[in-house]
Amino acid sequence: MQINYLDAVSSVLNMMKQPDSACKNIDMHRTCYTTFFKYLMDNDIPFSMDAALDWLEIKKLEISYEACSQYRNALFRLEHYLLFGDIKSPFCRSEDSFFCRSGMSESFFRLTYELEEYYAASQNPGYYHTYSVAIKEFFRLATSLGITEPEAVTIDTLIEYWNTYCKSCSSSGRRQNAVCAMTALMKYLHRRGDVPECYQLVLFGGNAEILPGMRLPKTGVAFHPSVPLEHKAEEYLDALNDWKYMESSKAVYRNDFTWYFMFLELNRLEHSPETVTLWIDMLPDCPDQAKAGNSISARRSHTIRMFGKYLQGTMESNITAGQKRASDQLPS
């Protein structure tokens, strides 16, 4: 471990010496690394970043604030090199910035840098800094639940985040910021192919309070079951152009798909005629079958049942059931 430490320190210092490097204070970095190595040797302690930060706490009592800041940044740069193989890291302002003290898995920790680069290059750079606290809290929560990779995030992870973090926010503004942060994060993870598209709306508009009421007593084992249906749903909506459906109507149907897909994700069920029936019974605005005739329920039922016909290749019209006439109820 100590040999690896010396090799890593040598690489960091060499990178700092390169002409294109913006890193300064090489002498202070070298002093930090040398002093810390002597501490390890004198106390027979193997190198680790946790040991480095413990040492830094001791040094705070002996050196100035400015020197301590430089030491912290030197250790931060060293950890960044060990994780990423480069020293392209910002100035470290807090021990929370270190991976070893972040409470995140390594994949989530790396993702924070990826997000920062993405927003800097493709979006408003300020967005990441606006959302970063809420995003890091989500990564910490997911890690504490045993979820270490972004592709392992489920709808239950988001609901737990709502219950433990969003509800504890001291103001409605912070809570809304957390919701917006998760919407942006899930949108990005969907672009990466990690999570289903419907996850973007799990926390939107208080949906996280409604969804638990749609959980079945017995759930399945399907993982991200809505993902194979997303592209088919868009094809289906495009097919509605043949019957001159308006874009406003298709937007409403797209919302129906979101609720159906969230139901599948929540209960880990594959799409089938049976799951459609279960979903209609559990809809938030018509929780029992007695209300199945109201307009919203009827529309949602129609949307998904017609989608089922599309998947089977039998969607020859936009009618899913024969018209019922009052005269049909008369005695012969």
Structure, explained:
This protein has 13 helices and no strands. The protein is mostly helical. Helix 1 packs antiparallel against helix 2. The longest helix has 21 residues. The radius of gyration is 27 Å and the shape is elongated.
Based on secondary structure, the structural category is mainly alpha
H/E series, N to C?
HHHHHHHHHHHHH
Task: Report the total helices.
Answer: 13
Q: How large is the share of residues in beta strands? A: under 5%
Shape: elongated
Number of strands: 0
Q: What is the first-to-last residue Cα distance?
A: 92 Å
Whole-angstrom Rg: 27 Å
Main sheet attributes: strand count, strand direction, barrel closure:
none
Which spans of ≥5 residues are poorly predicted at pLDDT below 50? 286-293
- Into which percent range does the helicity of residues fall? 55-70%
Report the mean per-residue pLDDT as an integer. 89
Short description:
By secondary structure, this protein is an all-alpha fold. The chain has helices at 2-17, 26-43, 49-59, 65-84, 106-122, 125-144, 155-164, 172-192, 207-210, 227-239, 247-267, 273-282, 295-312.
Features:
332 residues; mainly alpha; 60% helix; 0% strand; elongated
Produce the secondary structure layout.
Blueprint (H helix, E strand, L loop, with lengths): L1 H16 L8 H18 L5 H11 L5 H20 L21 H17 L2 H20 L10 H10 L7 H21 L14 H4 L16 H13 L7 H21 L5 H10 L12 H18 L20
